[in-house]
Every structure is written in C-alpha cells, then in structure tokens.
Amino acid sequence: MRQILQQRLDGLSSATKPFSLMEYMRCGIEKEGLRITPAGFLAEAVYPQALGSKLCNPVITTDYSEALLEFITPALNHPQKLLNWLQNLHQFTYKYLDNEVIWPASIPQTPYTAQHNIPIADYGTSTLGKLKTIYRRGLGMRYGKEMQTIAGVHFNLSFSDPFWQNYQLLLTNNNSLTEFKNQQYLHLMRNIERYSWLLIYLTGASPFMSANFLSTPFATSLRSGDHGYQTQTTVKMQASLNSLEAYTNDLYNALTTEHPAYAQIGLIENNEYIQLNTNILQLESEYYARVRAKRNLHPKESLLSALTTNGIEYIELRVFDLNPFMPLGIAKEDIIFIQIFALYALLTNSPDISPQEQNEINNNVLLTSQKGRDPELTLTNNGHEQLLTSWAEEILTEVLAVAKFLDKNNLDNTINYTDSVMAKLETIFDPNKLFSARLLREMQEQSCDYGTLIMHYATQHKTWLANMPEDATLQTEITKIAKQSIIEQKNIESALQENFEEYVGFKLGNQ
Q: How many whole angstroms separate alpha carbon 210 and alpha carbon 110?
C-alpha cells in the first residue's frame, strides 16, 4: 500500500505546478448544538425569528428539534475561513438567545424522562414544511426522540475539476470525467468507511450517553456505537460503496421496501401523519451512514436521481463528535488533519468492501467506540486480529508521508500539516491526550459530574464569543440571508400548495 501511495505522491509532485491542497480541496462544516437553559435543561423557548426561516435559511437552521441548532458554512478552501464563518454564525445567534447557552458536547446533560418535552422542529404550513416536520415525527417514532438530540459535526469535502483532470491523467484513466469522479469519490468513501474506527478514536468525545449516564471504562465515542447511531435499527441497511449504481440501488430499495416494525407503528394517528411512510427509510437523509455521497439539489430534485444523472459532487463525513473544549466544536488542527486524511484515503489503495469486511468494519467501530482507549484492544484487519495501537500507528505513519508532501509546497505559515498528524500520533502512544480521556479526567480532578463540567465550558465559550471581534462583513451577510429566508418561506406558503399525499408520492417515485 505504501508503494502505491508514494507513486501517486510522486506523480502529483512531478506536475508542472506545485500541489496545493487549498487550491484543489473545498470543505464545509455542519455543526449542531442544543439550546440549553441556565439550569441545564433543553430550551423550550420559541426559536428566535431573527435567525430566519428554519425552512429556507441555508446557514442557520434546526436539525431534529426546535432546540437543536445547526450551523452550516459554505464550502471554503482554508480552515481559518471555515472557523471564521462558524464563529460569526455563533455570535449572530447568541444575540437572540437571551440567557440560553449552546451545549458544546454531543451528548445532552440529562435523560429526558418525558419525551414530549423534546419539541420537534416546525417548518411551517407549506407542503415542503409539513414533509420536513412529519419526517422528524417519524424519526422520533422509530428511534426515540432522545437519540435525535445527540449532536455532532459533519464535514463536507470535495475536490475541484482541475484536480480531477490532473489526477485522471496521472492514473491514465480514459473514462468520462463524471465517471472518473464517481469512481474516485467512492474509492475515497471506502477508505473513510474502512478506517472510520481511527477517526472515531482520534476525535471521540462522548464516553457517556444520556440514558442513566451509561459509560464504559475505555469509551471514546458512545455516540458512534450501539447506544448512539449504530443501533440495530439504524444499521438495518448499508449501501454498497463499490459502485455508484450499487449505492443508489441499495438506497432505492430501502426507500421503497416496507419495514415490518415501522408498519406496526402505523402511518396516521388521530388524523395526523406520524411518519412519511413505513419503509426502511422515509427519505435519503434518514440513512445514518458514516460517510455519504452528496450533491447540491435543484427544487423537486431527489438525491438519488441527481446522483444517477449527474454523479457525486461531494462527500459528507459524519463520524465526528463535538469537541466540548473548543468554542466552535472543532479545532483548526482537526480540520487540517481531516483534510490530510481525506487526501490519504484518496491516494492509497481502496479495494471493494465485501460483506465480510463490512461486518469487520462495523465491529471495529463498535469496539473502538466502547473501549478504544484499552491498550489491549484488538481489531480485525483483513481477517486478522491486530492491536488498535499497532494498526493506528501504521496508518498514521502513511498519513504523515502525505502531510510532509503537502508541507513541501506549503506557503501558508498558519498551517503545518506535519504537526497536525504528529499530534494525532502522540495520542496513539498516550491515549490520555484524547478528548474522551480528558473529559473523564477533568470530571475526576474537579470532583464534578458531566453536566456541571460541560455547562462550565458552555458558559466559558459564550463569554469567549462575546469578547471576540465580529467580522462586520459576515454579520451583514448573515443578517441579509436570515431576512431573505423569511421572505422565501412566506412566498412558498402563499403559493398554491400541492396535495401532500401526491407530493410524498412524487418524492418517492422520483428516486
């Protein structure tokens, strides 16, 4: 594997123009965070109108709950630009939250004994708005509302067409550019999936779950395990990453095949829809994968039809916990590392994933989430048991070669790719440096519980954001976007609405 990686790095080096990751890669971040009262409970206050329309605002919206904020940056070429956007989105939002704070951890403070206290996001009276709200109602019926309040960071990533054109020449590939991009994005996705256990180990920060504060001694990210998003119900299907046709076919089957347990829930209760349908997936967004193929959609366009017609535009990495120690939920060094890791995943060998290997991957993720800091933990590598620490060191040594390659042509003194990887290598030899270990250690050192510690950081982060200078240009842009989104929702709701049943049928029939 190292030989193939080095050959491709050498090929990129021999290009007439020095290779720059910032020139060829674009990244965007979707960061979730619960609105929490000073007493530590889920906020029940109405979503602030000044933040714009939840239905139409592309940068500030809600996820499952009215209280679960979601900040979405544009796709940008520099880590600091991403953080600047995230910072200003937080600062803008805090102007309208009164005494509330944004919970900086993935796991809420307390179990919700009364699920009716978790308000589902309301997207208005339009047919599209009703679809979004009923979809979330269905999620609550299927998985429980409490699981839907778990927050995370999603990382969107793409490469520019000039990069793909140069890389296609390097690989002497004669397919169309669209077909080549599809193949290579799936190549990248397979390796992200294959090594997702490592990303979870390095960035996991949820050694607790809200239900009775479940924990295990060496846990890293229970959010990523079978008490979070890898439950029996959420891994009921996994789309193949071996070809775009297989990927879309698997999703189509899940969208059109009834699930007996969901059929038992029913479709309508008290003359109201309680889920969109009784199929394995209500919509494509219910597919809780660790990595997903994506593209920007036109109105009335479904993801599957868009992928089939126009191919993969970008990928979404979904394995990252919120970093509770950082005001924006993610550190610059981690953004840099994810970029390097993605380039590594693209350049190194990526065979098809067999059903046997997929089972190994799922088990590796579960083991890492539950006891990744156990120095004796072994994972399954191509049918053979290997210490997590040994395998992680092997992979990160190869990632380090990519980082050193990037530093050769790096003219930005605010970024050091090698240092970012070296910091992750240190956590292999000293797991006490992991976020998950730090969280447990600080609770012990300060003799406090999880909620008290996270509330301390929530308050500290709020103060930091208040003291940091705002970007006036960005604040003006965010304000304009919010106001325009309200107008857009009013226009949608004032237009002639489609019959809801026909609209849902169209959404499914247009896959």
A: 6
Among candidate residues 34, 367, 393, 420, the one with its CA nearest the CA of residue 204: 367
Alpha-carbon dihedral 174, 175, 177, 180, rounded to 10 degrees: -110
Place of tokens 């929702």: 489
Which among 373, 504, 388, 341 is positioned nearest to 441, based on CA atoms? 373
Phi first, then psi, for residue 269 (nearest 5°) are -140, 130
Q: Which long-range contacts (CB under 8 A, 24 or more apart) does 409-415 make?
A: 409/18, 409/19, 409/20, 410/20, 411/20, 412/22, 412/78, 414/80, 415/79, 415/336
How many CA atoms within 13 Å lie on the side-chain side of 460?
12
Dihedral over Cα of 277, 283, 289, 293: its sign? positive
Tokens standing for residue 78: 């520099």
CA–CA distance, 124 with 133 (Å, rounded to integer): 8
Tokens of 466: 């208040």
3-state secondary structure 386-406: EEHHHHHHHHHHHHHHHHHHH
Neighbours of 484 (CB within 10 A): 15
Q: What is the pLDDT of residue 113?
A: 46
SS3 string, 50-99, reads: HHCCCCCCCCEEECCECCEEEEECCCECCHHHHHHHHHHHHHHHHCCCCC
pLDDT at 2: 81
CA dist., res. 176 & res. 294, Å (int): 19
What is residue 230's three-state secondary structure?
coil
pLDDT for 511 equals 47
Structure tokens at 261: 């347990």
Spatial separation of the C-alpha atoms in residues 89 and 70, rounded to whole Å: 10
Across the 511 residues of the chain, what is the mean pLDDT of every consecutive 10-residue run? 87 77 94 94 92 98 95 97 98 96 91 66 94 94 88 97 94 97 98 98 88 71 76 69 98 94 94 94 93 89 92 97 98 98 97 97 96 96 97 98 93 94 97 96 93 95 98 98 98 88 66 47
Alpha-carbon distance 80 to 78, whole Å? 5
Reported in sequence order, the residue ranges of 91-228 that DSSP labels E, i.e. its strands, are 101-102, 153-159, 208-209, 214-215
Q: Point out which residues pair with 336 in neighbouring strands.
A: none
Structure token pair of residue 285 = 């967004």
Whole-model pTM over 0.90: yes
Q: Residue 167, Cβ neighbours under 10 Å: how many?
A: 21
Query: How many residues are listed for the chain in this entry?
Result: 511
Neighbouring-strand partners of residue 113: none
d(CA 311, CA 191): 19
Q: Which two tokens stand for residue 172?
A: 């002497």
